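Tutorial handout. Part one gives the primary structure; part two gives the three-dimensional structure as tokens.
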Amino acid sequence: MPETQGPSIQRLLADALRESTDLARKEFTLFRTEMSDNVRTIAMGLVMVIAAAVVSILALIWLTQALVDWLATKVDSHALAALIVGGALAVIAIILGLYGRSAMSKTSIAPTRTARSLQQDKDVLTERASG
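Part two.
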């Protein structure tokens, strides 16, 4: 009877090792996929922040002088017109920057799905080992 248990235990250990290897490979694939998705989302948020900066600069270059000159004729002060226009453009830039930062903060670079899956795997293996 001990001879039938020997190969059986060896087979079980080999199966456990193979399944553990497959599981580790799948977890690593999940980790890579999740990290790639998170980095892509953060990159998109960064692109939005850069776009906000570019739009702000373009707005300053193309519209500021014309708007200041027009407003100066209405308020009879070139300095006051420049202050009003500059303040409005600063508000627009702040809104765009906050939108980009919000888009980046919605995603964490931490692999939460992988961590959750690893915890489930640990629970299953613990249950199988004890039962």
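Part three, for discussion. DSSP finds three helices and no strands in the chain. The chain has a mean pLDDT of 85.
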